[in-house]
Amino acid sequence: MALEHAILVSLDERPGTGYELARRFDKSIGFFWAATHQQIYRTLKRMDDLRWVTAEEVAQDGRPDKKVYRVSPEGRQELQRWLRETGEPATVRHDLAVKIRGASLGDPRAVAEEVARHRRHHAERLDVYRAIEKKDFPDPSALHGRRLHQHLVLRGGIKAEEALLEWCDEVLAAMREDDPR
Amino acid sequence: MALEHAILVSLDERPGTGYELARRFDKSIGFFWAATHQQIYRTLKRMDDLRWVTAEEVAQDGRPDKKVYRVSPEGRQELQRWLRETGEPATVRHDLAVKIRGASLGDPRAVAEEVARHRRHHAERLDVYRAIEKKDFPDPSALHGRRLHQHLVLRGGIKAEEALLEWCDEVLAAMREDDPR
DNA sequence: GGCGGCTATGCAACTAGTTGCACAGCGACC
DNA sequence: GGTCGCTGTGCAACTAGTTGCATAGCCGCC
């Protein structure tokens, strides 16, 4: 399970509350590891029990107290242990691929429309990634260490979305030719 | 949940036992929807309760009886309903990306080695996909209907693995330049 | 003056997925 | 003669992830 480790990486970059982490998991690190606020709160609690993080309660007025978490030495050690571990490549689960494969058992046009929807999503996502790259990494060749690594992860997102976009286009073209309306 | 639907698609192509389905999920359809034999047996049982499949018990000698499942009319209807449904794009979970992003908090060289391991895995997987394409779809432009859809899904796998391979190479080159040994 | 959205946390119940084990006979290999 | 792997099914226990709800005050909008 890598949620703990994704949280450790994120908290190491900047301490924060469960709520803030949930925001970060809606973007940035969450582009490569999805998580809801529920999961994050539960996991932070467990990590606190394990002493991988320390929580500092901060009173606020006008809103509930918040707990600012930061990585402890034990947490950093655990992260280093995990980084040395070998892991299996992520298991894939693409309902869209299953739908395409089953298209001829239902309405292929409805499936084509679903592919078009996904195409739009991937195009948007790609725009977001490219905008981040332009803004945060204007000179990629000058990068080192942490900043380099952040950029490389973003590059992975860009390459994945480009491939998905091309695939959607290929599928749409082939299905249109197979069944011209 | 698409496991039921992946099973429906697979059983519609050819009826089979839980064991056979588990084999298929180790390759072919399983390249796009991972599942263990445990999950498959449990799901088949539930699908049988829902009358989406029918089971025919076949006695064998020398080994346990087997249950050959096939899709029922209700199952086909459910599949058609699902094909018309819109779904969200798959949530991603790439521990490798998390590891790269955290590389500078541990040993970047160990992470680079992990990237190299994944690179080998993706290169192998790409070879498998290309071999299947060459063998099963020698003339892609002549395909229609079900065969076309099967090929398009395979194309998605090829494009995804190509993108991952290129990404691994980019990461390895950049990390080597950042930290030449 | 009400409604929705933001910050902030969390419980409870559910669904899905993983891991380990068990049974059982066959054939192949060493 | 024993171990390993294949076919075939399945239970039990666990871990992970999702969904719905609750609390609670603030702010801005219509």
Automatic annotation (TrEMBL), chains A, B:
InterPro entries: Tscrpt_reg_PadR_C (IPR018309), Tscrpt_reg_PadR_N (IPR005149), WH-like_DNA-bd_sf (IPR036388), WH_DNA-bd_sf (IPR036390). Residues 92-175 form the Transcription regulator PadR C-terminal domain. Residues 7-81 form the Transcription regulator PadR N-terminal domain. Gene3D superfamilies: 6.10.140.190, Winged helix-like DNA-binding domain superfamily/Winged helix DNA-binding domain. It holds the Pfam family Vir_act_alpha_C. This is PadR family transcriptional regulator.
